[in-house]
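Hello again, I could really use a second opinion on something today. I've been staring at a protein lately and its backbone has me curious. Please have a think about how the structure follows from the sequence. I owe you a coffee for this, so here goes:
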Amino acid sequence: MTKNINQGQFNRRGFLTASSIAVGALGLSSLGLNSRAFAQNTSLSDLTLGVATYRGQESYFTEDAGTANRPYKVDYAEFAGGNLIVEALASGSLDIGSMSEIPPIFSIQSHRQPRLIAVIQGDVNNQVFLIPKDSKIESIGQLRGKRVGYVRSTTSHYFLIKALKEQGLTMKDITAVALTPQDGFSAFQSGQLDAWVIYGVFIQLAKFRSGAGS
């Protein structure tokens, strides 16, 4: 069974409640597209737009959005997290993608700033600290010296920093292990982590695999 550490004051509601749609960091045109898309083509019919998607998420290029009969092609690429989308935008291998507001902040600190062109309002508080079934840990403060998994440059990373700060701790007070969601899931299930800070579908997946209730 997996249990959640009480989040208490670490809820982000009312502070950060939006996700963003971003375009590439360099060479942006007035249309909000990465110059990669226009490097060799001047006709929209010859243009292929590189668009990021998440596993299980519907594309925002849909009939409901009125974009079914677009004059250009769309090449979808699936990503596991917004941090990877921002990196792809910065490298020029992607034209547009959506993510929570946190990855662009970490990207700006690395001097790789994407341009935010739209905001999608929604609840992004689906963040938890997962603890193994037989763990004695019952509070954030007890994570000192423990191995804690998180996803670098995402809401998971921000949530961990914020939660530790509220307890007078920093990332240096724990053994922070940056992992992809998939690798974090494997490490958590195999007992290599004392806690895992994660979001979204991986919360339910970890609970299901460990026999926890909802």
Observations:
- Confidence is low (pLDDT under 50) at residues 6-18, 25-35.
